[in-house]
Amino acid sequence: MAVTVAPARVPLPVADDDVRIERHGVWKRFRKHKLALGGAVVLLLTTLIAVFAKLLAPWDPNYIDQANWSGYPLAPGIAHHILGTDDAGRDLLSRLMFGAQISLTIAFFAVLMELAIGTVVGAVAGYYGGWVDYTLMRITDVFLAIPLLPLLLVLTAIVAASSNKAALGFGVIVAIIGGLSWPSVARLVRASFLSLREKEFCEAARAVGNRDLRIIFRHLLPNAVAPIIVQGTLDVAGVIILESTLSFLGFGIQPPTASWGNMLSNAESNMSIAPWVAIFPGLCILVTVLAINYLGDGLRDALDPKMK
Amino acid sequence: MILYWILNNVPGGPLGPYLANPHITPADIERLRHNFGLDQPLPVRYFRWLLALLHGELGYSTSNSESVVTAITERIPATLLLAGTAFAISLVIGITFGIIAAVKPYSWIDYLITTFAFFGQSMPVFWFALMMQLAFAVAGVTAFGYHFSLPSAGISSSDDFDLGDRLQHLVLPSLVLSLAYIAIWSRFTRSSMLEVMRTDYIRTAAAKGLDRVTIILRHGLKNAMIPVVTIVALSLPGLFSGAVVTEYIFSWPGMGRLFWNALGQFDFPLLMGYLVIVSFLVVFFNLLADVAYAWLDPRVKYD
């Protein structure tokens, strides 16, 4: 009786070793960058606070403490408001925690979208070259030629006007930011694909008869992933600033939903008597963005020692 | 190369749909739409707009029926003053910081400057502006027995020209605007300088017995500036468009403020005009960066 043996999937030991050595090196280099490590810890803490905001927040973020509220912000420490309240008598600390939720989620999804579009456009342009590359890159140039912030403002204004809603949905903001910021990623991916597709292993994959899609995603993309990760990390910081700027100017997340940006928009009028309302949300943005920038810097050093 | 940049000029074009599109949304006045030819199909309107653009015509503002071109050109001097001052500050401080950090790499001063650069890059502009207002305008600074406070809004206190007063009004906004650029340019100068200082011709210069200052400034800086010039040219349009936030917070009567007001009133011809001008700036400075690069570095050749 013939025994059918399932074709053994022989792992390639050499390649496997290589991978482990490579990863080990990355972690070793990353560990040396103390500030990046610190950045990672801070970011982790912020994320945890954001995720568990509901459990951690001492107050409901939209609860107006009418018993103690006099029409002006309460100072930190008064009536169990650790960081005080804003001008409407809402607990500042709780709003900051829920604001972290909003800011980080928007940043995460916007960057995810940016990376997805940018990678696909860049990969296709870089892999096929020729007129495909030319067309895609001219489109990319068009997006790059328009400064991001004014365009974002105009677009959010248009969307808000045409949907007749004062409040823009969460998803809309993610879509607008993600849909406009992909060109830099596309350029990055295209550049690495242009050089990767000339390599022997790409040639070999093609000779074996792999389809283009498989070559792009299985063979080329893993080799181009380091700069994408670095860019993505740094862009999370960029998007946090963009979103908070939009919200501060009144075009992003609308109150009463708390976001670090819109918490600052009312702070200006009371700044002389209640500076804490203006100080804390900005401090949160600064610390988070700083942490991410250090993390990105560390990742760049660790993943690609050549670029600096 | 030239063809590439000409094609790049089209960005003024694809913006067209944004101009056309919003007109449809506040579609309450059918008669006006007809008068303005807004009932024409979108491509037709777009081509008309493009044609007008070629004649240097950007249409009329819908909020105060001023010509967009005059409205914007009226505001350009104020923005130029602000952006120009910020540019000068960032250039001088940024490059100086970069050189100092690169000359003594991994020293305490290098760490100080690098840390400062990281903070500068991570600082949300609008919050920094608020903090500056809080520190210098609201609270004021007491030093040497005097109480200083700087104006936090506007370009001048009265219509009469007074240099001191103008300068006082300029301090906070230009500092706020320049912070990010000081940070970026100093980091860039540092890494570029470090690279140059490792090259053979620097060692040769040192071997010839030249003094350190000459080596750093004449041999090092000159070569290190080549990539910096590119970055500077590329970030100039951002200096103009980034002024939107700064001008908003400091009530600076420039283009950014105009853009902001137009946004509040859904004045789309004006918004379009602003975007077109800023996009042209981007393309122009991109071209300038390329030209400067080729001119400064004879090794670079475009064909």
Structural notes for this entry:
The complex is a heterodimer of chains A (308) and B (303). Residues 1-5 and 7-21 of chain A have low confidence and may be disordered. Chain A contains 13 helices and no strands. By secondary structure, chain A is an all-alpha fold. In chain A, helix 1 packs across helix 13 (275-303) and helix 4 packs parallel to helix 7 (170-180). The radius of gyration of chain A is 24 Å and the shape is elongated. Chain B is mostly helical and 303 residues long. Helices cover 73% and strands 2% of the residues of chain B. Chain B contains twelve helices and two strands. Chain B has helices at residues 2-8, 16-24, 30-35, 42-54, 68-103, 108-122, 125-139, 163-197, 200-207, 212-249, 255-264, 268-296, and strands at residues 141-143, 146-148. In chain B, strands 1-2 form a two-stranded antiparallel sheet. The N and C termini of chain B lie close together (7 Å). Chains A and B meet through helix 5, helix 6, helix 11 and helix 13 of A and helix 2, helix 6, helix 7, helix 10 and helix 12 of B.
Overview in brief:
With about 300 residues, chain A is an all-alpha fold. Chain A contains 13 helices and no strands.
Describe how the helices and strands are arranged.
The complex is a heterodimer of chains A (308) and B (303).
Chain A: H1 13-32, H2 34-51, H3 53-56, H4 92-128, H5 130-145, H6 148-162, H7 170-180, H8 183-196, H9 200-207, H10 212-220, H11 225-248, H12 262-265, H13 275-303
Helix pairs in contact in A: 1-13, 2-4, 2-13, 4-5, 4-7, 4-8, 4-11, 5-8, 6-7, 9-10, 11-13
Chain B: H1 2-8, H2 16-24, H3 30-35, H4 42-54, H5 68-103, H6 108-122, H7 125-139, E1 141-143, E2 146-148, H8 163-197, H9 200-207, H10 212-249, H11 255-264, H12 268-296
Helix pairs in contact in B: 2-4, 2-12, 5-6, 5-8, 5-10, 5-12, 6-8, 7-8, 8-10, 9-10, 10-11, 10-12, 11-12
